[in-house]
Amino acid sequence: MEAKVVKKSSLSERFVSFWRAFAKQWQLQMMAIPGIVYMIIFSFIPIYGLTIAFKNYTVIDTIGGAQWVGWDNFEIIMKDRYFWQSVVNTLGISFLKLAFGFVLPIIISIMIFELRDSVFKRVVQTISYLPHFLSWIILGGMLITWFSSTGMINQLLNMIGIAADQNHMLDVGKYWWIAALSDVWKEAGWGTILYLATMSKIDPTYYEAAKMDGASRLRQTWSITIPMMRNIISLNLILTVSGLFNSNLDQTLVLMNSQNQPKAEVINSYVYRIGLMQGDFSYATAVGLGVAVISVILLAITNIATKKLNDNQSVL
Question: Which residue segment(s) compose the domain that 265 sits in?
Answer without folding.
Answer: 71-309
